[in-house]
Amino acid sequence: MVLSAPRPRFLRSISCLGFWARQLQQQSSGSVYSSIHGFSQEEIKEKLQAFPGGSIDLLKQDSGIAVLTINNPHRMNAFSGTMMVDLEEKVTQLENWTDGKGVIVQGAAQTFCSGSDLNAVRAMSNSQDGMKMCMFMQNTLTRLLRLPLISVALVEGKALGGGAELTTACDFRLMASGSVIQFVHKHMGLVPGWGGAARLVGIVGSRNALKLLGGAIKVDSELGVHVGLVDGVLKVDQESERAETSLQHAESWLSQYTKGPAPVIKAVKKVVLSGRELPLSDALRTEKDIFGTVWGGPANLQALAEQIQTQVTLSEFL
Ligand SMILES: CC[C@@H](C(=O)O)C(=O)SCCNC(=O)CCNC(=O)[C@H](O)C(C)(C)COP(=O)(O)OP(=O)(O)OC[C@H]1O[C@@H](n2cnc3c(N)ncnc32)[C@H](O)[C@@H]1OP(=O)(O)O
């Protein structure tokens, strides 16, 4: 079995859609590559295990917001091979998190992520292994973006190379002032390979993407907001003892969108996801199916009862 995680309910519920929806259905867990593309997830996992270091830490909170931390501070949170494997496992856990509503992706020790661990990249520089690592990371980051959770990349410090690509695998990006996102790939004689270019075009448009990649431009929070890459800037008051940390800021920012029961928030993400990824007719049919999962559900019935209650109280008053 190449990909063992169960398919999200969203994909299972698509029954009569067109070409693109069927494509999505075939992709177990929302992945892009599987055995039909000659790709073996297990084979590359085994190779990646030879490059240890760091960890990916997942904290699921009662609020329904999880915190995923890229943790390899001695290498500016660069991704070792085992961290790539770890990320895939943590994404599987998030796919199966029934009570989840949101996830914040952050780096440890006030920096975000400096991309691939260059030591691993050097050791895997033959093109076949490089391609397999790229397919593995595309699968994982595509699944991250397709989670039925609202996701935010919290960028403090530097997000470089693959780290910049990781930010594009979230629904939103928040930047602490003084931070930088930079697609440094051109300086390395490369282009993004973790799906970052395709996602960047979707976020900022092709002209801005060409500028950011072609110029390997350092994007600070101001430029990030200007081009539409960044959704909010966090200014942390380090003087005040009671000041919120960037993570606390990010949690309260995200909680604006995650108030309410998990099935409803998940449904919100799913209708947006289908609108983002599917042709209109297929997206409309999918939206209808997702609507069917919340129509008459507990939150819907409660909201209706409360409205009737309010109307009765009002009419008594009048
Ligand atoms: C496949 C390509 C692409 C992709 O996957 O899409 C990539 O991601 S390739 C990697 C792209 N990233 C980079 O090129 C960043 C390289 N690093 C730097 O430019 C700098 O280290 C920094 C991130 C700007 C930080 O600079 P500074 O604050 O001056 O700290 P140091 O340079 O001293 O770094 C501390 C420490 O961390 C090690 N480090 C940093 N990044 C990486 C990395 N990507 N891989 C491995 N190690 C990394 C750095 O070597 C230092 O280690 P020591 O010398 O042992 O202290």
Protein described:
The chain is of the alpha/beta class and 318 residues long. The chain has a single domain, classed as 2-enoyl-CoA Hydratase, Chain A, domain 1 (Alpha-Beta Complex). The protein has 14 helices and 9 strands. The strands form 2 sheets. Strands 1-2-3-4-6-9 form a 6-stranded mixed sheet, with helices on both faces. Strands 5-7-8 form a 3-stranded mixed sheet. A hairpin with a 4-residue loop joins strand 1 and strand 2. Helix 3 packs across helix 6. The chain is globular, with a radius of gyration of 21 Å. The N terminus is likely disordered. Belongs to the enoyl-CoA hydratase/isomerase family. Its EC number is 4.1.1.94. One of its GO terms (molecular function) is methyl/ethyl malonyl-CoA decarboxylase activity. This is Ethylmalonyl-CoA decarboxylase. It catalyses: (S)-methylmalonyl-CoA + H(+) = propanoyl-CoA + CO2; (2S)-ethylmalonyl-CoA + H(+) = butanoyl-CoA + CO2; (2R)-ethylmalonyl-CoA + H(+) = butanoyl-CoA + CO2.
